[in-house]
Amino acid sequence: MFPFTNLLGAAMPHLSVGQYGTVDNIFSMTVATMGAAALFLFMSRPNVNREYRPALMVSGLVVTIACYHYFMIRQSWQHAFTLVADGYAGSGASFNDFYRYADWILTVPLLMVELVAVLRLDSLKAKSLLTRLVVAAAAMIALGYPGEIISSPEGWTARVIWGSLSSIPFFYILYVLWVELTNSLSTQPVAARKLIELARLVILITWSVYPIAYLLGGTPDALLAKSGGNVDASGIVALQVGYAIADMTAKAGFGILIYFIAKAKSDSAPEPYGQTVPV
């Protein structure tokens, strides 16, 4: 049974002032980005037709959940370290990075929902697509977590195995999304097609950051640093920064793109006067 607490134990790696500050600042930036995106998405719902408002509501929920979890991640990061003469050392408290996996458990399926909602696919096709994507997303997260909590160089092989298993549903999701977005282009308004093509690239590029960060955080040196070894902790810093940048882009950035798709589709087929409904 795998623990649901910390990915870095109480034996925290030694960080330079720059390394600690880089991670702390990126966490702060992520909180602000997610919070600002949530306000924008919730307040922009009246700007689109009522059939696209659920997509913006889900997008707003995604970044709200992420804002909360990154606030907690930053708090845990600050509590886990204390300033010493030559940088930052472990305070004796654990860094609870499971907040990020708790966030992904909730937000990754919702990302699938917001995309399908804004595309307005046939109901049977949308149900089938969502079922496949949500199941694959759950499998991806469940298989990635056991590898993420490994914190010693002796576990490198096991981490690679879990990461490889997690990559199977990961690449399946990317394949399905690319194919379905491509197939949906002919049914979408002309004004929205370029934006949907952009959405394909955003998904492909931003999601590719996650396995790269996972690899950087799983090098032998990074695992030794996780266990408290006196080695360079750049891999741990790269993992935290990579995940944060990917989350900002895949959630806040993608949510804003969902809004522009909804707005373009609404402008191409405005609601008849008098048929709008209160927000």
Describe how the helices and strands are arranged.
Layout: H1 17-43, H2 53-80, E1 81-84, E2 87-90, H3 98-119, H4 123-148, H5 156-184, H6 190-216, H7 220-226, H8 234-268
Antiparallel strand pairs: 1-2
Helix pairs in contact: 1-2, 1-8, 2-3, 2-8, 3-4, 3-8, 4-5, 5-6, 6-8
Structure description:
- This protein is mostly helical and 279 residues long.
- The chain has helices at residues 17-43, 53-80, 98-119, 123-148, 156-184, 190-216, 220-226, 234-268, and strands spanning 81-84, 87-90.
- It has one domain (17-268): Rhopdopsin 7-helix transmembrane proteins.
- The protein has 8 helices and 2 strands; from the N terminus they run ααββαααααα.
- The model is unreliable at 1-6 and 273-279 (pLDDT under 50).
Which key features would you list for this structure?
279 residues; mainly alpha; Rhopdopsin 7-helix transmembrane proteins; two-stranded antiparallel ribbon; 2 strands; 3% strand; elongated; disordered N terminus
| CATH architecture tag | Up-down Bundle
Query: Whole-number radius of gyration?
Result: 20 Å
Q: Element order, helices and strands?
A: HHEEHHHHHH
Put simply, the count of helices is 8
- Helix content, binned percent: over 70%
* Stretches with pLDDT under 50, minimum 5 residues: 1-6, 273-279
Overall CATH class: Mainly Alpha
Under CATH, the topology can be stated as: Rhopdopsin 7-helix transmembrane proteins
The helix/strand class is mainly alpha
* Main sheet: strand order: 1-2
The CA-CA distance between the termini, in Å, is 45 Å
Quickly count the domains: 1
Let me know the CATH homologous superfamily: Rhodopsin 7-helix transmembrane proteins
Total DSSP E strands: 2
Most strands sheet: 2 strands, antiparallel
In one word, what is the shape? elongated
What is the average per-residue confidence, as pLDDT, rounded to a whole number?
87
Strand content: under 5%
